[in-house]
Amino acid sequence: MSSAAWFAAYAPLFAVLGAIFGSFLNVCIARWPKDESVVRPRSRCPGCGGAIAWYDNVPVISWLVLRAKCRTCGQPISWQYPLVEAITALIWVSALWLLGPSVVAVRLALVATILLGVAVTDAQSYLIPDGFTVSGLAIALIGALVGAVLGEQLPFVGPWDAVLGACVGAGAITIMGWLGEVALKKEAMGYGDATLMAFVGALVGPVRALLTVFVGAALAAVLFVAIVYPIGWIRARRAGAEFTPPLVPFGVFLAPAAIVTLLFGNALLNWYLSRVFG
Ligand SMILES: [Zn+2]
Question: N or C end: fewer C-beta atoms under 10 angstroms in the chain?
Fold first, then answer.
């Protein structure tokens, strides 16, 4: 079969798997910041407390059928649920398109799903729950071992580089946070950023772990210094209030940086080194 035929054959399966993982990701995003179990109890409507039937819990479709309202009490259901499910389905289909029907495609889809959860949770609550980073680190390390057995590893690194990468990633972000604290005289980095970079480092290895921190910091700097801070400052001045700079949810930027580095980091490094050293 041609690669296009393979893609057409597997795309529906990956889309459905992605939507199911996206549905579970919604549960993790809602419950982990509150230290609640993601297994029990079953999903309930926050309005009336009624259990949600399976046919009202089908990813994306139920939200559309119910027109974004609880069947029993009519309480609005956030558009975030179908959006996360749709993006996760898209992640899974993209992983298939990039890497073909393979174990590495499933590994890419799984870790990108977790990184999406990290970004959403950090943006909403300034938290990176251990549930994401611990399961991510486990998937990264087990994936590296499985990849070594199968002889199919790219774009991920092998087991030894995965362990080194976890240490370098967590170490680099911790040093950055420490220096930031000394410079700004206030807490600059959460513990969650270090656990996130242990997970990411185990995917990309030590060199690209450093690149991830650099790309993430650059993304955060551009967005906050160029857009968020000036808008906040102007608003505060207009209101006659003092401007207090908002915290930077660094995981929001590290998560996409990790995907960029995983997929394009080596090409980016080669291009840069060839420009600098000819
Ligand atoms: Zn309800």
Answer: C
